Amino acid sequence: MDCKNEPMRYEMMDKIFIDDLLMRCIIGIFPEERIHKQDVIVSLCLYTDISGAAKSENIGDTVSYKDIQEEIMAMVEASSFQLVETMASALADLCLAHEGIEAVKVRVDKPSALRFCRRVGVEIFRIAGQKEITG
């Protein structure tokens, strides 16, 4: 995931990223999509200060990307969202609930959504304590 196109304040912030996490879930609005699990690909960019962990080399001083990955996989694989937009918003909320994450960029791709296209999806940016960014 390209972490370069975020609002200016976060551009220079430390980032933890998880790219192309492949999972299967029920997702879609059409009846045939509500029967069989489909592939979704999730990428995250977590905006946080990692300087404390860099100095201490203590996992307790940073955000555990392993914990985030496990929570995301549990949520997505058990979900049955109708829209990728709703899934992306729920994933952003999950990430922002972790102490130390100031903002998050979430991308959800649905590879099988359109013929002749590798992927279709959404990308959102959320800041802790705010619902959405516009502009």
Mean pLDDT: 90
Which H/E pattern describes the elements? HEEHHHEE
- Uncertain segments are none
Beta-strand percent range: 25-35%
Helix count equals 4
As laid out across the biggest beta sheet, the strand order is: 1-2-3-4
Question: Structural class, from secondary structure content?
Answer: alpha+beta
The main pleated sheet reads as: 4 strands, antiparallel
Distance between the ends: 21 Å
Instruction: Please estimate the helix content.
Output: 25-40%
Count the E strands. Answer: 4
Q: How large, in whole angstroms, is the Cα Rg? A: 16 Å
Which outline best applies?
A: elongated
In a nutshell, what does this entry contain?
It is built from four helices and four strands; from the N terminus they run αββαααββ. With 135 residues, it is of the alpha+beta class.
Describe the model.
By secondary structure, the chain is an alpha+beta fold. The protein has four helices and four strands. The chain has helices at residues 8-11, 51-56, 65-78, 84-96; strands spanning 15-25, 38-47, 103-109, 121-127.
